[in-house]
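Async update (no meeting this week)

Hi team, since we skipped the sync, here's where things stand on the single-chain job. The sequence we agreed to prioritize is pasted below, unchanged from the tracker. I ran it this morning and attached the output directly underneath so nobody has to dig for it. Comments welcome in thread, and please keep replies under the output.
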Amino acid sequence: VFDLGCGDGRIVVTAAKKYGCKGVGIDIDPDRIKDSLATMRKAEITKDLVDIRQGDALNVKDLEKASVIMLYMLPEFMEKLEPQIKKRLKPGTRIVAHDYPFPNMDPDQTVEFEVGGARPKYLYMWTIREPKKK
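Output:
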């Protein structure tokens, strides 16, 4: 599970703790990296299961290793990431984006949910498909 813009790391830590999967969290903000490492310590998750990296989520060297990608990024980021998603990910890779979809990829599923506040929230989900044969 890769979480681009991982914030406090709760998604990759939960995935590792609850399901035993490996996680990679990437955030550009050094304070969020500290938060993620604290989340790992609190949950007693080691670096064997979760790798927290400070860096640009648009330049992830091993993104193609992901089987699941989580995103909560603004539309500008989604637009910049979309070409990489189309080119680098293997078929079967699943993507879940909170609130903002890719501009040119129709989601396989959209879920609307309420968490309080002025507006509803959305999850957009895709599964990368085999390229169409010519």
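Quick observations from my side:
The two ends are 32 Å apart (CA to CA).
The chain is about 30% helix and 25% strand.
Reply here if anything looks off.
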